[in-house]
Amino acid sequence: MTRHNETWTAEQKEMLSKLYGEGLPDAQIGERMGKTKNAIVGKRWRMKLLDQKPQKHWPLESPNDSGCQYPFGDKNFTFCGKDKAHGSYCQEHHDICYRTDEPKEPKHHKRGWMKPSLIT
User: Fold this and answer.
1) Same domain as 93, residue 64
2) Dihedral through CA 32, CA 33, CA 34, CA 38, nearest 10?
3) Are residues 69 and 94 in the same domain?
4) Distances in whole angstroms, Cα of residue 62 to Cα of each of 71, 75, 88
């Protein structure tokens, strides 16, 4: 492991650049070089080897932006697409997301976590 005040040789810097350019994660680079992940991240930062790996970005619009935005699926999800009734959802999915059939009770009372009817 690297000590805090240990300097990096030119060969180590070159190896870091090469391994990072191959797309290896910082932890794996650290294992190969005998350094901690944090040492690798810090040195990359100082060498201005900033993240150039593609980042995942969620689309701002769904394939059918005019329809219901209720998602279906896990990784490759789709949207409901029915006509919107309230905000971003059709009536069915609005009712699922915004339930109004249950009476609302305070979760706690100012004297503690008891229902007001139990406090005398």
Assistant:
1) yes
2) -100
3) yes
4) 10, 14, 11
Q: Is residue 119 part of a domain?
A: no
Per-residue pLDDT of the chain (120 residues; tens, 9 = 90+): 545 567 899 999 999 999 998 888 899 999 999 999 999 999 998 998 876 554 444 454 445 567 888 887 766 777 888 888 888 888 888 888 887 666 666 555 555 555 555 555
- Per-position b or e across 60-85, b if 16+ CB within 10 A of its CB: eebeeeebbbbeeeeeeeebbbeebe
| pTM (predicted TM-score) | 0.41
